[in-house]
Amino acid sequence: MLFNELGLSADLLRAVEEQGYEKPTPIQREAIPHILEGHDILAGAQTGTGKTAGFTLPMLQRLGNRPSGQPRIRALILTPTRELAAQVNESVRTYGKYRAVRTMEIYGGVSARPQITQIRRGVDVVIATPGRLLDHLRQGNIDLSAVEMLVLDEADRMLDMGFIRDIRQIIKSLPAKRQNMLFSATFSKEIRELANKLLDHPAEIQVAQRNTTADRVEQIVFPVDKARKRELLSEMIGRDNWQQVLVFSRTKHGANRLAKQLVQDGITADAIHGNKSQGARTKALRDFKSGKVRVLVATDIAARGLDIDKLPHVVNFELPHVAEDYVHRIGRTARAGQDGTAISLVCIDELKLLKGIEQLLKRDIRKEYMPGYEVDKRIRPEPIRNGKPQRAGGARPGGGNRPGQNARNSQRNRRSRSRQSRSA
Question: Which of 20, 131, 275, 418 fits a 20 to 30 Å CA distance from 80?
Answer without folding.
Answer: 20
